[in-house]
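Holo prediction — adenosine-5'-triphosphate.
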Amino acid sequence: MFLNRISLMKQDVEDFGEYPFTVPSINSLEQLDLSNAVTFFVGENGSGKSTLLEGIADKCGFNTAGGGRNNMYRVHASESVLGDYLRLSWMPKVTNGFFMRAESFYHFATHLEDVDEDGFQSYGGRSLHKQSHGESFLSLFLNRFNGRALYLLDEPEAALSPQRQLTFLRILKDMTAEEDCQFIIATHSPILLGYPDAKILSFDGDFIEEIDYEETDHYRITKYFLDHREKFLKEILED
Ligand SMILES: Nc1ncnc2c1ncn2[C@@H]1O[C@H](COP(=O)(O)OP(=O)(O)OP(=O)(O)O)[C@@H](O)[C@H]1O
């Protein structure tokens, strides 16, 4: 555990009527305590998960297009307005880490290819562009990243099959237990959310609040769908 508290410096906000403060979860944010090596952000589309994740990445000095402090390429870097208003509390402070969103992973892989000097040894000996999206994503984690770091991941499941999501759970376990890493992950995946000992923060209500796995819509809807597929489809597809 490194990052243990995220606070919004409300006194510095000039206009709560402008993005990102128009997003209810951000508007009501005061402080979030992180007590687990793995934290999930969960909530409906548009509930503010990426906004907060990008804000944290920005405040950490990571590239908001994807990457760490030393990956300052300029492709699709998005401006995070929120970062300026966040205070991050560390114990101890780490500067090592990485922000990754599945949709800009391709650009990140291109950047790594441009700066590669060791014949892709850091990524299992093969250019990330010669691996599939999911393979290259796991390759990065397995080969390149190591301990005492904070990883911020936006919907990593987009790259991963259900089987590979299970592999990713194992990587999470190893990296937190053996490598002393911390993860904050925005996800819609009921598989990833099932990781034990994670704190799940819901962005759906008036405030960001902790929620149990079984209370998430992702778990409930997926379970109901799988248990009652025909009835469910009838309900939503027939008038
Ligand atoms: N640059 C921006 N300017 C204005 N509004 C924005 C901007 N970026 C995002 N928004 C709005 O802020 C809200 C929160 O967006 P955000 O991307 O944080 O949601 P999310 O919870 O990550 O959603 P998803 O699950 O779909 O990725 C949305 O209503 C979105 O349209």
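READOUT: The first strand starts at residue 3 and ends at 8.
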